[in-house]
Design a protein that fits this description.
2 domains, D-amino Acid Aminotransferase, Chain A, domain 1, four-stranded parallel β-sheet, 28% strand, 5-diphosphoinositol pentakisphosphate 1-kinase activity, 15 strands, 8 helices, Rossmann fold, alpha+beta, EC 2.7.4.24
């Protein structure tokens, strides 16, 4: 191959399955000057990060971006939060590849509109991010995919069907829509944005409940002597 010895052995196949080295399909490379070759070889893939500032400017994300920027052919662009919230998607930065994830206050529908408008390569499914905001949908997806999950029942107080919010509470168990859960059991809000998850203990273990919440300082839970389940809101009950 002589002057083309530096080009990788990549082949292109035609309709008759005949292979031809990719470098031959590029024409006469000798006709290209150094500037042309540099432009082609120096083309960067622009990766856009579209998320709220609390996420995109976090220490872990900055570490990831720093490492990605070490690659010569990757250029990172972080969408400013004010642009995401206030500007139409037509004015958002252009990118070849999009990394976008939902958090509180993030306009997920706008991100989907942007993906339709610009058609970048999507790293993480945007539409599915609506599903992961609802624990009921998450559990349904896990079941569909054959992934093992704890035995559970949904108490849906928003449902007009009374069969979906039947609750009978006893000292050491609850019955949710006919399904019995003996203590200890877990009570989770159906909204995945709500991190107030309670674990109820049996009287033999002293009763009460452990209340989990989004970490504050060095704490992410606190014990409460309250043994009764919550009477407002919709929840998933499952075996501990």
């Amino acid at each position: 191959m002589g002057e083309y010895a530096h080009i990788p052995d990549v082949y292109v196949y035609d309709a008759d399955n005949n292979a031809e080295p990719y470098w031959q399909t590029m024409g006469d490379l000798s006709e290209l000057n150094d500037d042309d070759l540099c432009v082609e070889e120096g083309k960067q893939v622009v990766v856009g990060v579209c998320a709220m500032a609390k996420k995109s400017q976090s220490k872990p994300m900055k570490e990831i971006l720093t490492r990605l920027e070490e690659f010569e052919y990757i250029k990172m662009i972080v969408f400013p939060e004010d642009v995401i919230l206030q500007k139409p998607v037509e004015e958002w930065p252009m990118c070849d590849c999009l990394v976008s994830f939902h958090s509180k206050g993030f306009p997920l529908e706008k991100a989907i509109q942007y993906s339709v408008l610009r058609n970048p390569f999507i790293i993480n499914n945007l539409d599915m991010q609506f599903d992961i905001q609802d624990r009921r949908r998450v559990y349904s997806i896990l079941e569909t995919e054959g992934i093992e999950i704890p035995r559970y029942a949904v108490l849906d107080r928003d449902s007009p069907d009374p069969k979906h919010h039947e609750l009978v509470e006893s000292e050491d168990h609850v019955e949710v829509n006919g399904v019995v859960f003996n203590k200890p059991f877990v009570e989770k809000p159906v909204s995945a944005e709500d991190h107030n998850i309670y674990i109820y203990y049996p009287t033999s273990a002293g009763g009460g409940s452990q209340r989990l919440f989004r970490k504050i300082g060095s704490r992410s839970s606190v014990y409460s002597p309250e043994s009764r389940v919550r009477k407002t809101g919709s929840f998933i009950y499952e075996d501990f």
